[in-house]
Specification:
Layout lengths: L9 H10 L5 H14 L6 E5 L7 H4 L5 E6 L2 H14 L4 E5 L12 E7 L7 H11 E12 L3 E3 L4 H18 L7 H5 L10 E15 L1 H9 L2 H10 L1 H19 L11 E13 L1
Bound molecules: S-adenosylmethionine.
């Protein structure tokens, strides 16, 4: 399998920074617990591959002396570097690098993560590089998320209608995802990290109170939406987003139809596959 190049344009990287939330803190804690089950040494170095604008990287900083976030995209790393000042993390570094090459010493790393990214990599090369840089008992963990869930309070009827909108969005978008995204749609069940104690866990949920503009932004940040616009043209992309917005507004009874009113909940459900060398 070879790696795929996407997410590299500055506008797309900005959509990421603005609309892609961090993964659940509880999941990061669980990954560190998994590492701690068999590794008792100091937590010196973690590496977050395909780090984007640092969504997962910053969450690792409280556990490790140093965290390195790497991404093949210069535009993503530029956004991540800007985030470093906002997050006030002085133990996090970022650099442009393919996931298949990690610029660290042999056996110097305790944890390698990749968040919503592993499906784009040349995994055999990443496993090989992991064996080189991970210390004895070190862990590789690939986390990823399911489709977005939009809700308004516990209004079952309207939540079902939102679900239908999101299912329709995916019916339109899914053909525009590059083939490796199928690994994510199948919750990484086809990814087997060839180390010890292979573990799969599901249903780590995170929800944020948000508004329709941000939900539309999250949909626009899909690589499939970017491809849709390239294939069908920007006008078709705008029309699609307007249709989605109109459908939401019809159901949401947002005050004054204000897409910036924070009355919606955006939920993301994460899963992980992890193993130790
Ligand atoms: C869907 S984004 C995820 C970003 C971030 N980790 C997050 O959780 O939102 C996938 C990221 O993987 C990066 N990527 C894709 N293939 C890569 C590769 N072979 N090596 C390093 N980064 C890669 C992309 O540039 C992009 O930033």
């Amino acid at each position: 399998m070879s790696s795929f190049r996407q997410f590299e344009e500055p506008d797309h990287a900005l959509l990421y920074k603005n609309y892609r939330e961090k993964p659940p803190a509880r999941l990061i804690e669980r990954i560190v617990e998994f590492l701690r089950e068999k590794y008792t040494g100091p937590l010196k170095q973690a590496v977050d591959l395909g780090c984007g604008s640092g969504q997962c990287t910053f969450l690792l900083s409280k556990y490790f002396e140093t965290v390195l976030g790497t991404d093949i995209s210069q535009a993503q790393i530029s956004q991540a570097l800007q985030g470093t000042a906002e997050e006030e993390c002085n133990n996090v570094n970022f650099c442009v690098s393919p996931a298949e090459t990690i610029a660290l010493e042999d056996h110097s790393v305790q944890l390698i993560t990749a968040c919503v990214a592993a499906h784009w990599f040349d995994l055999d090369k990443v496993y090989e590089e992991g064996r080189r840089v991970l210390c004895d008992g070190g862990v590789m963990a690939f986390l990823c998320m399911d489709y977005l869930i939009v809700e308004i309070g516990d209004d079952l009827e309207r939540n079902q209608q939102f679900l239908k909108i999101m299912q329709d969005v995916h019916k339109i978008m899914d053909p525009y995802f590059a083939p490796p995204a199928a690994l994510a749609f199948n919750k990484y069940r086809d990814i087997t990290i060839p180390y010890s104690d292979l573990t799969r866990e599901y249903d780590y949920e995170i929800g944020v109170t948000t508004n329709l503009s941000k939900i539309l932004g999250a949909i626009k940040s899909y690589s499939a939406f970017q491809t849709f616009c390239k294939v069908k043209g920007e006008d078709e992309g705008k029309k699609l987003m307007q249709d989605i917005k109109d459908r939401f507004l019809k159901i949401a009874t947002i005050p004054n139809d204000d897409p910036d009113a924070n009355v919606l909940t955006l939920k993301r459900r994460y899963f992980v596959v992890m193993a130790r060398v």
